[in-house]
Amino acid sequence: MPHHIHQPYSENPLLRRSYNLIAPLYDLTIERPLLKARARSLCDLPADVPGRVLVSGVGTGLDLPLLPAMHRYVALDFSAAMLSRAKPRGANLHIDWVLGDSMALPFADAQFDHAVLHLILAVVQHPEKCLGEAARVLKPGGTILVFDKFLRPQQQAWLRRALNPLTRRLATRMDVVFEEVLREVPQLQVISDRPLLAGGWFRGIVLRKVQE
């Protein structure tokens, strides 16, 4: 049965409206600068054994042309405008589209072999819920690919922190410390963690769910 709980994104309705409005502009500002980093992160998705892959927070689908066609995908986002822009990019993939909340996934436990969390942990109101939900629906031994911007523990970054009260309501958070998020999801282990962009502000992290 699907996992039914309240939708945490409703705590910040302005964010959803903002992403619906900026969907047409998102690609112009995001696509080219992050393309190589996205591709490097997605190289960690296995390309030898077919599996079921969750793309949580698919946005406008900029990851989709970079994904191996052998897998079966579920692409989820909380913005209908983003999903409509993503669908043409998934035309060559076996993919199901879901309008839903990355912090309260509408799936039963242990349904996916892999999950892709690109630029979503620093967007959602509660990144630990987003990561925890990805871990919940992942099969033991499955992997999660994370690509996002994170502060390091004890990093000052005063300007990013000063801008965060505004940016978190309109587009993205500037204050997420990945190590603090991971601490709340103990069933995940770090397999690799490497800098991908902007002097290590953007990182590519591979996680594995501990075998039960």
**Per DSSP, what share of the residues sits in E-state strands of 2 or more residues?**
25-35%
CATH topology: Rossmann fold
Distance between the termini: 21 Å
Tally of discrete structural domains:
1
Radius of gyration: 16 Å
Low-pLDDT sequence parts: 1-6, 158-171
Q: What share of residues is helical?
A: 25-40%
CATH class: Alpha Beta
Integer average pLDDT = 83
Strand order of the largest sheet: 3-2-1-4-5-7-6
Instruction: Report the strand count.
Output: 7
Report on this model:
With 212 residues, the protein is of the alpha/beta class. The protein has a single domain (8-209), classed as Vaccinia Virus protein VP39 (Rossmann fold), CATH 3.40.50. 32% of the residues lie in helices and 25% in strands. The chain has helices at residues 13-42, 80-86, 127-137, 158-170, 178-183; strands at residues 52-56, 72-77, 94-99, 112-118, 138-149, 188-197, 202-209. A 7-stranded mixed β-sheet has the order 3-2-1-4-5-7-6. The longest helix is centred in the first third of the chain and has 30 residues, at 13-42. It is globular and about 40 Å long. The two termini are 21 Å apart.
